Predict the structure.
Amino acid sequence: MNAPKLNKDQIQKIVLSVMGFIFLLYVYSNFFLGPLQRSRASMVATMQEKQKKLDHSKEDLQRAAALEQQAKNATTRFASFKALIPEGAPIAWFPPRMKLFFANQQIDRAGARLEGSTGFKQPELANWNRYNWIIDLPQAEYATLGKAIAELENTEPLLSITHVTIHTQPDAQFQQVTLAATNYILKK
Amino acid sequence: MALQLNLLHEEITAQRQRQRDPLKIGMMILGGLFAVLLLYYLWNAYRTLAIKSQLGVVERDWAKVEPSVTAAQKRAEELNNIIKTTRTLDEYIDNRFYWAPFLQIVSRCVAPNAQLTSLDGGVAEDGKSVSIVIDGVAAGREPRAAAEDLRQMLLEQLGRAYSDVKVEFRGLEDLDSIVSVGGANLAMARYSIGVTFNPTAPKAGASAPPTGREKKR
């Protein structure tokens, strides 16, 4: 086969055609097909994500309903904890409450003062604070004190006595008592 | 054979030249290619539109259920928090040290001839140990023996309720003063007893700590 000989003009035209071809492909892929495919890919991804959410939505609804049943005890208990904590600053209600409590336990002279308060590191107790109190009972009889502490420990589940100091007084009938107590209180 | 003369040789050559024009051929190829690419583009556009329509349907469905799902997820998170918080608070409540039973045990151990003058105790921050110092005076013919009886009684009684109980004298000294109990003049001793224990109940089957009473007998 004898290939046709190309003259200079024809070679120029062939080069021009090849360049036009390359330019066409470039424009086509960068300005037409590329954006279209990118847009399609993003839509497919969005659709898959939404579809997955849709598929999981039924599961989520069922899980929440099941959890609601399981958490009945916990919610009731949590509500009872919340009910133990009155509105307002603890310094305003805790000392009068202690005074009334010990008065009901036949210990007339009682006073409570705040030592300090701290938060918790645990995330589940992020809404709670730990309050440290000193409860002074300058005149308490030992047996009465024991009963009062038992009652306090049973009726105040969020209160924990951490330190007890009992000193006899000269008349020996009464003791001077100091209690250090920690109370968990919900931030309100 | 007849002789053929091509009198239009130049014109035919020019025509062939025009037909073989590379630019023209290139343009034709480009045109064909353009048509193919256009068709491919249209096909892609059609698929994209179809996917867009599917996406619209899915988005409409999701918009219908999204409020309830979001509310359910929020409620589930809230419930999980409540469960965790309640569990932590219950652990705290269960791990508290109850002082009333301890004070009752102490009151049971104190004999009439061993008076307590002070009791000072605290729970360690981890809640795993309790330390108490009990000071007092004992009276008797042998006041030190009376104080020792109190120590042993505390060890025995506390050993039944708590584990790792240690009851040791921190100080025990005779006093010069004499006290009259029931008409008899008795010598006195001042004692200081240190008590430490773990507030957890002793393991079942574990024997109470040795009191040393048997040895005395």
Chain B touches chain A through 66 residues (CB under 8 Å). Chain B has two domains: 25-96, 99-216. The helical segments of chain B are 9-19, 22-94, 99-109, 143-161, 213-216.
